Fold:
Amino acid sequence: MRIGIFTDSYYPHISGVATSVEMLKTALVAMGHKVYIVAPNLENSKFIYDKNNEIIWLPGIKTGLYKLRLAEPYSRRAMKIIKNEWKLDIVHTQTEFSLSHFARIVAKKLNIPVVHTYHTMYEDYVYYITHGHFEKIAKKTVVSIVSNFCNNKCDELIVPTEKIKKLFTAKYKINKKIIVIPSGIDIQKFYVTNSLKEKAKEIRKKYNINDDDFVIGSVGRVAAEKSFDKMIENLVPLVRINNKIKFMLVGAGPELNKLKKLAKDLKVDKNVIFTGLIDYDLVPSYYQSFDIMTSFSKTETQGMTIVEGLAASKPVVCINDTSFEAMVEHNYNGYLFETDDEFRKYVLELMSNKELYNTMSMNAKNSTYSYSKEVFAENVLKVYNRAINKKKNRVNK
Structure:
């Protein structure tokens, strides 16, 4: 099968969407399929055709949201390449904005179906564009755009979690079949190895973390919607109980300086480690430097860093949000907490009970098979085949 993926986010920009697209591409190619990518050029405003890697980079304008750019909604040069060289069987959109428009034009000209995956809760991110002005109108606009696209502009619709499916049914009034397929990761990349253990020791040494320190870890963009401030606030009573507890935040973002100030104001700055931006290839080593993973965020569509942490054999303690329910089985591979008191209780249990910790570590790794990129690609491929067959049936009638 010849598959064209249209996305507003792709490597070298690191994001959940970019990782999901890369995992899907890698697994599909390994299965013998051809996968082509169309994405905005995040580095500059040039048109680039990387023939070796089968990627078209389109010029784009800055959005004010992270480093993302909106690509031009139509490209004659790209269309010529897609039509004459790629000869696609299906289009898979990973965005509801400019490149989705181009993808639909491609699909119409080639008379092929469109499969769409919805990734991002845009309502939680409009602040970065509006800066608090006309926020209600902006959110309504986002809902309208997403609802229209998902209902009318694609043949098949994929979402990563039941959380999004429920939201789409209740609020967005999506009236078509919604298929839940969790995004996949390269789970073996995060498995415990001697090499990763050694690198983790170096990381702990770099940040003056002792062997008997207990490290609570988080990985991600340091932004307000991730609620890292809640973790730092909860560290205060934890440190009073045991000063060996530390929090390591791996990542960079607009809230970094605010969080540093918060840690200092709360007098826990010696127990909080801010790594800043790190090379993506080093991320598995950082997971191994943690003892457990956590997330206080209620804005995740799926929370892939939690899956990565589980694959790294780290028990997780997450806020009880529907985005984590599928991956975190309470009392098996971690805990889902409702209150701050529960969060601190679960952390201390994992810290003090070695047998419990070891059992949950083993369970953590064993719970991630369904999130492998291979399972992910197999499930998406079923959707592709269904979309193509439905298209053929309509043509033959």
